[in-house]
Amino acid sequence: MFVVTVDFHIHPGQMESFMPSMLANAQASLDLEENCLQFDVCIAANDANHVFLYEIYRTKEDFDAHLKMPHFLDFNTRTAPQIISKMVHTFNRIDS
């Protein structure tokens, strides 16, 4: 499994407009991409402008396909001005 984590820091005052777009992107990923197995959206307990994503795809190629999906491209364009920083990390999950 291919795991993606993303840390967003959102401009103060932008969460009300950012979060509906974020949640719509997460739900579309789960609904439209059969190889998107998990897409969790979290907000830091100590920083209301820090959003953390935890996503699981079957393969890296499935994640690469996600990055080309219309719902992701729309989300990425629409939210870019609301984001201070975005850090993406990828992992290969070890199953026991």
Query: Looking across the biggest beta sheet, what order are the strands in?
Result: 2-3-1-4
The CATH topology comes to: Alpha-Beta Plaits
Query: Alpha-carbon distance between the termini?
Result: 12 Å
Number of strands: 4
Overall shape: it is: globular
Please count the helical segments.
Answer: 3
Catalogue the unreliable spans: none
Q: What percentage of amino acids are in beta strands?
A: 35-45%
Chain-wise SSE layout:
Blueprint: E1 2-10, H1 15-32, E2 36-44, E3 47-57, H2 60-66, H3 70-79, E4 83-92
Antiparallel strand pairs: 1-3, 1-4, 2-3
Helix pairs in contact: 1-3
Could you characterize the architecture of this molecule?
The chain is α+β, with helices and mostly antiparallel strands and 96 residues long. It has one domain: Alpha-Beta Plaits (2-Layer Sandwich), CATH 3.30.70.100. 36% of the residues lie in helices and 41% in strands. The chain is built from 3 helices and 4 strands; from the N terminus they run E-H-E-E-H-H-E. The protein has helices at residues 15-32, 60-66, 70-79; strands spanning 2-10, 36-44, 47-57, 83-92. The protein has a 4-stranded antiparallel sheet. It is globular. The mean pLDDT is 97.
